[in-house]
Design goal:
alpha+beta, OB fold (Dihydrolipoamide Acetyltransferase, E2P), 5-stranded mixed β-barrel, 16% helix, 47% strand
């Protein structure tokens, strides 16, 4: 049995956790769904993709716009996030937070492709799709 008081044990635990998660990547993204969310892997995950517009001022002084696409997966172990994610529909505006993971693979055409997916642990429906919503570049 340890002679350390309880608060010292907690402090040591917190320090250990901080060291373990010191290099953890945290990603936050928001945008509109490009298609309805899908439940995959026998109900273990929800998969969805968003499109997010990025505007910038071009060298000609005109406002330009680029669209970035992001993929997300939510585990059924994260019940609150899973419940929100499984009901997402094309055009919904969503915010999510999680950890990014990148993998490379060869396409059937022989090209090397790299894809990043966010394993989301927090998902928030910001606004459901509406007819008066600004047009998003949703594929």
């Amino acid at each position: 049995m340890s002679n350390k008081p309880n608060n010292e044990k907690i402090s040591e635990t917190n320090q250990t956790e901080q060291k373990l998660f010191a290099d953890t990547n945290i990603s936050m993204k928001s945008g509109r769904l490009t298609r309805d969310a899908q439940i995959i892997a026998d109900g273990k995950f929800v998969k969805f993709s968003i499109a997010a517009n990025k505007q910038y001022l071009g060298s000609d002084g005109e406002v330009k716009s680029n669209v970035n696409y992001f993929n997300a997966l939510v585990s059924s172990n994260l019940s609150e996030a899973f419940e929100v994610a499984k009901n997402l529909k094309k055009g919904d505006w969503v915010y999510f937070k999680g950890e990014d993971a990148t993998q490379s693979f060869d396409t059937p055409e022989g090209y090397r492709k790299t894809e990043t997916t966010t394993f989301a642990y927090q998902v928030t429906l910001k606004k459901e799709k509406s007819d008066d919503a600004p047009a998003a570049d949703v594929a």
